[in-house]
Amino acid sequence: MKKIFFSMLVATMTAFTFTSCEDVPAAYEIPGGGNGGSTTEVPTLYSEAFDDNTTAFEFKDVNLTGGLTRVWKVASYNNNGYLNASAFLNNASHASESWAVSPAINLADSKKAVLAFSHAINKLSDVSTMKDMMTVWASTDYTGDVSAATWKQLVVPNYPAGTSWTFVESGDIDLTEYCGNKVYIGFKYTSTDENSGGWEVDNFTIKGDGTPMVSPDKPDTPDTPDTPTGSNLVSNGDFEAWTNSLPNNWKSASSASNAKLSQSTDAHSGQYSVCVAGGAKNQRLAYKELTLKPGTYKMSFYTKAATADGAVVDYGYVKVVDGKISGGNDYIYAKKYDKLTNTEWTAISHEFTLAEKTTVALVIAVIKNPGKDLLVDDFSLTTADGGVVDGGSTEPDQPETSTTSTYTLVNQITDGTYVLVAKTDAGYLAASPLAATYNYGYLKNPVSVTESNGTVKVSDANAFTIKKVDGGYTIQDATGYYFMNGAYNSFSRSAELPASGHIWTITVNSDKTVSIKNKEMGKTIQYDTEFTSFGAYEEIKAILPFLYKK
């Protein structure tokens, strides 16, 4: 990389204070900053939240090894999009250098400007290298070749702990030096064969006193297209996009989908794979129905056992007519019954031919003997002479939209709708409900929220209804399921009012945290930072939550 040198642009602002490119009478202040002076709303000059799974950022690979074909992409989880970088492939780290470069940010008529974003870092084998391997740069002469541009490193005030997917705010980064020009911001990711973490970047914002930009057109991102392009006929075969704890598109309208699915960070590539739970009967992962033209098709994917117990997999398709399985059970499998271990990923491919236009659900089955869980990643469907029939769309499922509401901290409990929020060193985390396919487990994947003067804004899908009953309270999730203390320190839930185990006592403590204790089991709901989930424990050994009411 030529012409790279450091210009440490330390952001020393404590209340959104700027240093001007030229003398100006006063600094900006955050609205409601409480410093006694007048406040000015700081205009947003450019921002990207990546929630539509597209971006105007360019991804530029400088060095890829070990079979890597890319590092950066747009990913999403629970309707939240973000930039994602990882050089972990085939269960191993690989050396790389790759950039995500913003479009040109026009600061021509700006006198002051700051950059801010949120980011999460995880899976580094050595977190002490984080600030050297995941860096942010600025350039005024970038023309598409990162190696030919002049870059200056920006100092990021706040980095995450590097051990979880919890987003933290970067803090304000001064861009005063670039006022009067256009500037490109580059997120530079590097890795080694021994150390390759995951870096997620969200809520990219530049504020200042110039003219807000019209966002440039965003090209479809190859990794998460609106409709699969090229030879691959399926979308989200890399299992990077999830909504409500389920992988987008991987749900058949028919009974072809019967397995319990969960997200796994043991991935063949990228950040995630899907874990398909086994059972006493064959359990199936199925892609949403496709109407295919006559032709020969090849389905390919990577798989491995989820545990040392091993697993057996089969794969193929089933015809779907009027939303139902043709013949009731006419699954057309390869019948190879591949035996899997959990030590390495196995590449699977299977060809099948359709003589006429056919609506199918592609399936991967966990065979009941031994009926053990398996992982699936990087699925594709290709053809040389077929294709998707018009109207047999492969467009991604539109995620169910849920309302975001404001919830207020309470010091007494009355009937109503609440969110459960834990205050951690990494920020405030709101509990998420159990995955739609599970009726037991811990409350994983908490949502990062911003607490402001005793309020938080969060999706109503994360809410719980609390109602006073004889002996205490009932707790129901947003889908109406009753929560009980489950096995071990987890929860179970029921669509019907249970005979027992569903009564909770709730006490507001002097610090406004709440002790929510199951009356039958005597266990108290807490947030465990080690497992990054909410559970119910006999001893008070973790973080007691707050309750915020709608």
UniProtKB/TrEMBL annotation:
PROSITE patterns: PROKAR_LIPOPROTEIN. The keyword Signal applies. SUPFAM superfamilies: Galactose-binding domain-like. Residues 207-238 are annotated as: Disordered. The keyword Magnesium does not apply. Keywords: Signal. Residues 1-21 form the signal peptide. Gene3D superfamilies: Galactose-binding domain-like. InterPro entries: Galactose-bd-like_sf. This is Carbohydrate binding domain protein. It comes from Leyella stercorea DSM 18206.
